[in-house]
Amino acid sequence: MMNRNEARAQAQALVAQMTLEEKASQLRFDAPAIPRLGIPAYNWWNEALHGVARAGTATVFPQAIGLAAIFDEDFHGKVAEVISTEARAKYNGQSAEGDRDIYKGLTLWSPNINIFRDPRWGRGHETYGEDPYLTSRLGVRFIEGVQGEGKYIKAAACAKHFAVHSGPEAIRHEFDAQATPRDMEETYLPAFEAAVKEAHVEAVMGAYNRVNGEPACGSKTLLVDILREKWGFEGHVTSDCWAIADFHMHHMVTSTAPESAALAIKNGCDVNCGNTYLHLLQAYQEGLVTEDQITLAAERLFTTRYMLGLFADDCEYDRISYLENDTDEHDALALQAAEKSMVLLRNDGVLPLDETKIKTVAVIGPNADSKPALEGNYCGTSSRYVTFLEGIRAYCRERGIRVLYSQGCPLSTERTENLAQPGDRLAEARLCAKAADVVIACVGLDATLEGEEGDTGNQYFSGDKKDLQLPEPQRVLMQTLAKTGKPLVTVLAVGSSLNVPEGNAQVLAWYPGQAGGTALAEILFGRVSPSGKLPVTFYHDVADLPEFTDYHMENRTYRYYTGTPLYPFGFGLSYTTFAVENLRPAADHVTVTVTNTGAMDAETVVEVYVRDRTSKWSPVHPSLAGFARVALKAGEKREVTVKLNPNAFTVVNAAGERIRDGKVFDIHAGLSQPDARSVELMGQAPLHAEMTVE
Q1: pTM to 2 decimal places
Q2: Tens-digit pLDDT profile for residues 646-655
Q3: Is residue 365 left, alpha or beta, with left meaning phi > 0 and alpha meaning psi from -120 to 50?
């Protein structure tokens, strides 16, 4: 990859030719052209959470939380490589047409590696779940896949939101997230540290909230002491959008816009998403910032542009044609992702459906024929959407199976037609169910109900959830369908924990991307065995959890939760059975033998959990220390080696110091956590070994 010192030298030489006004102008997210220096306009704001977003046609992969459920670093890297290819394809084509608008640059503001610590948080489905190690591994591979291995950076990834941000959305602009040194080091910071030190992420985005009193986008502790000095970050920092204005408007840590701009730039925030840096020159005139501080920020930003090859004649990525966007191959990968991500939560034997015995299927529910149920937020526009209804219908049509459809109810309102009575589709839903051999209920949420403040129609909760239940009309629908007595398969399109009791079987589809309907049909009818695992804990009720605003990890996530979960982190059923034997632990890996003892080819995930048996600083439960996805044909046996987290044999004390404390560790390896609820649901316990580490 291009030497950063070389890129920095070129950036310094270019910035040295600019006036102070020109330098300041380049720190806006919508940096204007400087024609006299041959610098085109550049918009820093682009999104690519699970595909290139908000700029027209692109491949839409499963939402990030669904990609996390695959538990596969290598596959995750392939998805990221496709995303960066499409970003280049679109950038090359659009910039050649003179279109340098928002969402069309090569600085991709992804991944979101915040910890999904509370199921109420509306943006949780943008993350890789609740575990710091899983999040760090997937974050690193996403960044590496996006940035590439060429002479230049293929596209620049951005780790966000630094740091600690995970709701509530309604008060994020004024909220002070109080996190202990131990929780910072053990939970909130590891994924960001890995992004910087391992993946060499080119950008980091600050959060809206304060962290222990300091606004994140102007925090000396976060941006100077930790990010640059402790971790050695060399890229650029961007603010979240209009977050710097929050300094004086909501956090009240400054009094004026120039003061806010000065606080941010002095602590190393280089790009302002928003308009507060329009006040930089006034801040300079008031003596709040120096020209050197403005110059340094501009140099960092042009270093990134040089490393992207935007001023080069030999950038290999310039050859990527627009025809490399939205390809059949990318669609095939999106289908694989959807197949691998779906989680079988419950099954009394009704699944897989036997197509030789079924003549009529009823597909019912507000998410059955919904494109938003496929998308999640921060998505592109697919040219190839297959809704759940379309996927099931296409599968059944080839086999002579009749499909009946009813919306059943709207997503969250009482009636479908404005002049109708409440529940105006319930009778139709009952008719369909009674006439069918099996009912597939497609319910859940979409990004209009759970998502980012201001992006959702859920204004009262600003995108967050008030509880873990379906919206009331859907609860009535599910109760109505259950009363018909017909075999009922519940399909949940959702990005977070929900408690839906109805259904002989329950498939968690997440927001599965453009191929979601095809993948669902293949899983329902047994062409593909479900193999996803939960990257978050599913709880019974929010009453089981601490206050949403409490950022302490006590009684949060699988590592610290003291209750009995509905479905545990790491859980997911299969259509086949696997035997895990012969656990052999070592200092940096464990080896097990896995056999597919069933009659169906399938994939599964080997999970390894480690706990310091004697240290008072150990989490309540063993922590994920390694994982490996494995594909086995029926009857096949294979030795699987799982790499361990280098920090697996450490703990974090109250001062936030990572230390080696105890010498005796419990190692668990299997298809789930070793907790009693996972063992109950899986019908088998992980293997256990005791290991002494000097």
Answers
A1: 0.98
A2: 999 999 999 9
A3: left
